[in-house]
From TrEMBL:
EC annotation from Swiss-Prot or TrEMBL: 2.3.1.225
Family under the similarity heading: Belongs to the DHHC palmitoyltransferase family.
Segments crossing the lipid bilayer: 40-64, 76-101
Enzyme type, top EC level: transferase
Localization in the cell: Endomembrane system
UniProt gene name: Zdhhc12
Species assigned in the record: Buphagus erythrorhynchus (red-billed oxpecker)
GO CC annotations on file: endoplasmic reticulum; Golgi apparatus
GO biological process: protein targeting to membrane
Keywords: Acyltransferase, Lipoprotein, Membrane, Palmitate, Transferase, Transmembrane, Transmembrane helix
Entry's Gene Ontology molecular function annotations: protein-cysteine S-palmitoyltransferase activity
Main location: membrane
Protein's name in the database: Palmitoyltransferase
């Protein structure tokens, strides 16, 4: 019988065992774990920059003169700006939540399912992997 490594999880969607499993990302159609979690943070950061740029482009393209046809001239850019704004909020919240979890040296899976994970079940207030914000961030990104 093979023993599953600590912090690893078998993903039912991918059918892979993922070390330091964080989550299965539906946008990437892939698991995020030990090998690609830093790249996922880069991906979210790039998405945020692109969305902010797209929002700026949509906003700067609006035609601000008063006329009866104002909405007709600007409807596409207004809808685009609104959608970009919503996606920007979602990506920003994802990025901030992941950076918070990284600073605590915990994964999304551990945070959401600590009551089901044997090595975390009895320590709700303490994270056995937390080594302080600076060291956690250093070990994650370096």
């Amino acid at each position: 019988v093979l023993q599953q490594p600590m912090r690893a999880k078998h993903c039912q969607l991918c059918q892979h065992c993922v070390r330091r499993y964080d989550h299965h990302c539906p946008w990437l159609e892939n698991c995020v774990g030990e090998r690609n979690h830093p790249l996922f943070i880069v991906y979210l950061s790039v998405q945020l920059v692109v969305l902010l740029w797209g929002g700026h482009v949509a906003w700067s393209g609006l035609y601000f003169e008063q006329s009866r046809e104002w909405l007709q001239h600007n409807i596409f850019l207004l809808v685009s700006f609104f959608l970009i704004f919503i996606f920007t909020i979602v990506v920003l919240l994802l990025l901030v939540s992941h950076l918070y979890l990284i600073s605590c040296n915990t994964t999304t899976w551990e945070f959401m399912s600590h009551h089901r994970i044997s090595y975390l079940r009895h320590s709700e207030l303490e994270n056995p992997f937390d080594q302080g914000i600076i060291l956690n961030l250093w070990r994650f990104f370096c």
